[in-house]
User: Which sequence fits this backbone?
């Protein structure tokens, strides 16, 4: 399916050491055929963090597998809290229920 944006809802004020600091996003047609799209450093995120997955010449990527790798947390925390994840394709937001019913992304 086409995916143009990945959004994570994070709350540093509530989660503190459980909040991701460094993340990477990989996409592909399967777990073994993924390539890294982006890496981000987050500084005390509060609310939705939007991660565009496309490029200037192509605003989306084709993917059946998306991996969000959390490399480190704030304050050297060991576990992570991601409160919600949304995928977007050209203005259509795939939330949990819609995503489960209509998408094949795993």
Assistant:
């Amino acid at each position: 399916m086409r995916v143009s944006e990945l959004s994570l809802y994070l709350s540093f004020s509530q989660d503190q050491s459980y909040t991701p600091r460094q993340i990477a996003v990989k996409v592909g047609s399967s777990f073994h055929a993924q390539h890294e799209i982006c890496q981000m450093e987050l500084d005390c995120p509060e609310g939705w963090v939007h991660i565009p997955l496309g490029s200037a010449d192509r605003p989306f990527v084709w993917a059946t597998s998306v991996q969000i790798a959390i490399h480190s947390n704030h304050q050297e925390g060991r576990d992570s809290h991601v409160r919600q994840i949304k995928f977007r394709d050209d203005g259509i937001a795939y939330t949990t229920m819609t995503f489960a019913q209509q998408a094949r992304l795993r």
Summary: The first strand starts at residue 2 and ends at 3. The chain has one domain: 2-102. The longest helix spans residues 96-102. Residues 10 and 80 are 10 Å apart (CA to CA).
